[in-house]
Amino acid sequence: MKKSTLAVILTAVLCCGMMALVDGVLMPGYAVKSIIKLILFLLCPFLLSKADGSIHALEAFRLQKQGLHKPLLLGIGLYALILCAYFLVRGVFDFSAVAGSLTESAGVTKDNFLFVAVYISFVNSLLEEFFFRGFLFGNLKALHSRRFAYLFSSVVFALYHVAMMLGWFSLPLFLLCMAGLTAGGMIFNWLNEKQGNLYASWFVHMFANFAINTIGFMLLQSR
Predict the structure, then answer these.
(1) Which contacts (CB < 8 Å, 24+ apart) does range 157-165 have?
(2) Domain extents for the chain?
(3) Model confidence over 20-43: pLDDT tens digits?
């Protein structure tokens, strides 16, 4: 395995590991956590690309001629699908711990929910798309292999969410969420690859976050 490939993998593992420590152990306020994430997910890849010319950080932001109407429709459809799935399973699975965890560990309350929801949907989704798709998937595909890039980036994307979701769900629902996140990472990779940039996957990711934030709002209101 090339030195550059190992550097990308180690950067991804270290940055996600540090975010897991922040999310699961340190648990600072949401503003502080967001600043730390910006440093890890944006600055670190940029510095690595400056140190190694074969590693690219900003190419995924290039605009292409392909339209975004299909990803937009896909995002709207995904929003509806997630909400429908929630309403179908809320009588089967217990979601009561989610609202408490949002308040206690993430610092999300009814008062700041709108700001956090907007930030997560627009900024945080773009940051994650840059890190997991633009930086991790794009470089692993170029430096190693397409298959490995798809698998590794999708699994890391799912595992990254473990620390912030601990205590939210029962084990069966948690495992289902992990499988869904891995599959979602695969779909985001495919959109990124097909479009030639990360804007299409960002649109879909954005609407997925819209749906999750809508559910979070309903859970907080029910407390």
Answers:
(1) 157/128, 157/132, 157/181, 157/182, 157/184, 157/185, 157/188, 158/182, 158/185, 159/16, 160/16, 160/19, 160/20, 160/132, 162/20, 163/19, 163/20, 163/21, 163/23, 163/24, 164/23, 164/24, 164/105, 164/106
(2) 3-60+68-221
(3) 999 888 888 878 989 999 999 999
- For residue 132, give the nearest of 215, 202, 210 by alpha carbon: 202
Number of Cβ atoms within 10 Å of the Cβ of 189? 24
Instruction: List pLDDT tens digits, range 80-111.
Output: 998 998 898 887 766 666 655 555 545 566 67
